[in-house]
Amino acid sequence: MVYDLTMLKAFYANYSEKIERIRTVLQRPLTLAEKILYAHLYDGKEVENYRRGEDYVNFRPDRVAMQDATAQMALLQFMNAGREQVAVPSTVHCDHLIQAYKGAKEDIATATKTNEEVYDFLRDASSRYGIGFWQPGAGIIHQVVLENYAFPGGMMVGTDSHTPNAGGLGMIAIGVGGADAVDVMTGMEWELKMPRLIGVRLTGKLSGWAAPKDVILKLAGILTVKGGTNAIIEYFGPGTECLSATGKATICNMGAEVGATTSLFPYDGRMVTYLKATGREEVAAMADAVAAELRPDEDVVANPEKYYDRIIDIDLSLLEPYINGPFTPDAATPISKFAEKVILNDYPRRMEVGLIGSCTNSSYQDLSRAASLARQVKEKELDVAGALIVNPGSEQIRATAERDGMISAFEEIGATIMANACGPCIGQWKRCTDDAERKNSIVTSFNRNFAKRADGNPNTYAYVASPELTMALTIAGDLCFNPLRDTLVNRKGERVKLSEPVGEELPPRGFASGHEGYVAPSNGKKEIAVAPDSQRLQLLAPFPAWDGKDLSDMPLLLKVQGKCTTDHISMAGPWLRFRGHLENISDNMLMGAVNAFNGETNSVWNRVTNAYGTVSGTAKLYKSEGIPSMVVAEENYGEGSSREHAAMEPRFLNVRVILAKSFARIHETNLKKQGMLALTFADKADYDKIQEHDLLSVIGLKDFAPGRNLEVVLHHEDGTKESFPVQHTYNEQQIRWFRAGSALNAR
């Protein structure tokens, strides 16, 4: 089935003409990213040579996708927008609220009962406003989007940071907060700073144990977690053609871990094959008709240094399998050096659990290559040393994998098959361990491995690898095992070597049809009810507008030390149940961030009580007395997820300013959307001047203007004071959001 066929026909009918006009105006060859971006300008007449990394530009994306945890807040905001229907095709996917525990059947039943109020709200709101709804168990949002909605040359936004997964089909797909999604769903301009372009030239061909996942694991080590900020990663070169569409999607998905705006691949025959295999022959035919414009221009490929801001070369023929971690996805180590790293750093060597799946690696090809290793356990009379958990990416994948014997291959070696959902990847894992204080190691095919992310345990050392390598290490139960070189001892006492993984790119017999669980909108006029005493959902009240004055004498709520991701700011796991209730979820605000003054988490000095208290409790007390507060942080503040709760919670608790050394892209935008001040140090050394008992003022707001610094004044406890300039990236429209109290207020 082809969804939104009318929109797709209109898009492809005009696409080549748009690109030709853009090329004429700009008078130069175009990269693929530029073609898609310029073809989606909100006003097609406003074509000009926008400055990368500087100019804010308005776009008109083709569609919106939301997962259940973030859709709640997005739809609550949309309900305040006054529209009867969404302006673009939009979908909601129930994949985050299913906790992995006993197995698919039991866990989905438990989630359906536990989250009934939220699921009913999402279903009814979707039906009311013309939004497609995918029920619990239907699949992980990004896999379902790839199978049904992604299309070459298109542009979409999604309320999840791994939305770039759709770049595997040549689509610019960008993770955003709910307020950004509301802009698109209401038909308004969607604003984005014109991204810089990082060109990654792929040559050679993968072989043996190397997988598409290893491309992005290696690249993460090169770029680090912030090296792609405000940039699109565009892959090109002959090596792209050796990667399946789902392999490309894996690479694009994890581009979020280097801060990239999105990632994408040029259109090729592997995409055609995937489109046809997923029942979209019409889309493939339309894309074929404009194929030349779904790739970078020839001169761009021939002379990339002229058109990209940075070039990175990766030879796939020389690529080793990588393992990244622990605690950060950019700690990249090739398998040949990983054992040495484990021993040198005294990491827990025993590998206790292997987890295969997630939006990153749950395709048919991923499962088939992992299953080929699982079958070797019986063939070579081996024992499996670690526990194995598998999360299929969608009901279509699960049903096909079951039909083709892959599910049974996993189950025969003791695997637990979890729901077609995110599960442990986003902290939805009810893990039973013998001792939560004991350091332990797990290996996953997921995309993130921040401390406590998978199971809530700070003593879990999590590593990211391909499904193939995860499977091999699970069999061995030893982080120092290198399947390319080492042998295992079987039940006969013989030394045996695992054969290289093999698998099918797509099912030879086609995809099976499972119980996909799609509910089309009814477009009725039913009112959406939210109980006033609900603990899961809460209607939103507008944030107050700026009072026209400088922000004076604000207590320092928290000075953060080190990494502060959205997991530190607004934890997932058990807190996911409050994603539709701003007041309740605000109780977790910044509880994972480390206080620079005492080295502890969730412990800050409260100037009212003159004692230490929780971050949210202290902020609530300040708020109750009408006192705004301020947070100070280090580099790449807000790294990780797109969750706008990490911006809405401080706004709700009257935190008015986040002053950081630098911000992650999505989070900085989310702060601006909610009427916050996101400021950066002009001199990062000024971070050290801030003392625990300081009162801080932000001066110059009456003259707040693009490119003009503000001033922070520190009032120290001893009566002295000092000041320094701070920078910002606000444009005129974003300043209007601040003055109005939020972007929604400024509509």
Unreliable stretches (pLDDT < 50, length at least 5) are none
Gyration radius, rounded: 25 Å
Residue fraction in strands: 15-25%
The largest sheet is:
7 strands, mixed, barrel
Q: Estimate the mean pLDDT confidence.
A: 96
Give the CATH superfamily of the largest domain.
Answer: Aconitase, domain 3
Helical content stands at 25-40%
InterPro entries: Acnase/IPM_dHydase_lsu_aba_1/3, Acoase/IPM_deHydtase_lsu_aba, Aconitase/3IPM_dehydase_swvl, Aconitase/IPM_isomerase, Aconitase_4Fe-4S_BS, Aconitase_4Fe-4S_dom, Aconitase_dom2, Aconitase_mito-like
Family: Belongs to the aconitase/IPM isomerase family.
Pathway: Carbohydrate metabolism; tricarboxylic acid cycle; isocitrate from oxaloacetate: step 2/2
Domain Aconitase A/isopropylmalate dehydratase small subunit swivel: 554-683
What is the fold's blueprint, element by element?
Elements: H1 5-26, H2 32-39, E1 56-59, E2 63-67, H3 68-79, E3 90-93, H4 104-114, H5 116-129, E4 132-134, H6 141-148, E5 155-158, E6 172-175, H7 178-185, E7 190-193, E8 196-203, H8 212-223, E9 231-236, H9 245-253, E10 262-264, H10 269-277, H11 281-289, H12 298-302, E11 310-315, E12 322-324, E13 332-334, H13 335-345, E14 351-357, H14 364-379, E15 387-391, H15 395-403, H16 406-411, E16 416-417, E17 440-444, E18 460-464, H17 467-476, E19 488-489, E20 495-496, E21 518-519, E22 551-559, H18 566-569, H19 582-585, E23 604-606, E24 611-613, H20 615-624, E25 629-632, H21 645-652, E26 655-660, H22 665-673, E27 677-681, E28 695-699, E29 710-715, E30 721-727, H23 732-740
